[in-house]
Amino acid sequence: MVADGLRVLFCGINPGLMTAATGHHFARPGNRFWPVLHASGFTPRLLHPSEQGLLPEYGLGITNVVARASARADELTDEEFREGGRVLVEKVERLRPRWLAVAGVTAYRVAFGDKRARIGPQERTIGGTRIWALPNPSGLNAGWSVGRMAEEFGRLRVAAEAEAEAEAEAGE
Q: Which of 10, 23, 39, 70 is the most exposed place for a label (fewest CB within 10 A)?
């Protein structure tokens, strides 16, 4: 679900098998993306993956670094990540979201060749689009609780809202 001029374009690593089967991003029941998106204040209620079409109403979109579906992200090659990063840059240049939020700092590191990237805002930009690396919401990422992830997603939400408010004030 992508559109022009989004506030935040969320980017997963690649479709899991459930996502590939349903056509809905982050569709596996153990994935925490949708609960975290709501808990962080991006959506007014918890959305079901089948409701991903509502995201543009909130200024949000969703895509992936790598298009190939797999059971686990570690089944992907570095070459696939690098090529996915190249394609993602083209997509961001075309759509011009204010923020690109990559849900998986390891995927971001490989796709963009930035071995030192950490969770949070990145120095790199794509045109006028800023980048934020988020924790991977997969249930396999036990190092991040829903609460901690919601805090990090919330930091991005606050930054995106502040930027939008600043742009609106400057345009008046």
A: 23
Report the catalytic residues. Answer: 14, 25
Q: Beta 8-12 vs 60-64: how paired, if at all?
A: parallel
Tokens of 130: 């800023």
Mean pLDDT of 17-43: 93
- pTM for the full model? 0.93
User: What DSSP string runs through the chain?
Assistant: ---TT-SEEEEESS--HHHHHHS-TT-STT--HHHHHHHTTSSSSPPPGGGGGGGGGGTEEEEES--S--SSGGGS-HHHHHHHHHHHHHHHHHH--SEEEEE-HHHHHHHHT-TT--SEEEEEEETTEEEEEE---STT-TTS-HHHHHHHHHHHHHHHHHHHHHHHHHH-
Q: What is the pLDDT of residues 106-122, one digit of tens each?
A: 999 999 999 999 999 99
pLDDT value, residue 48: 96
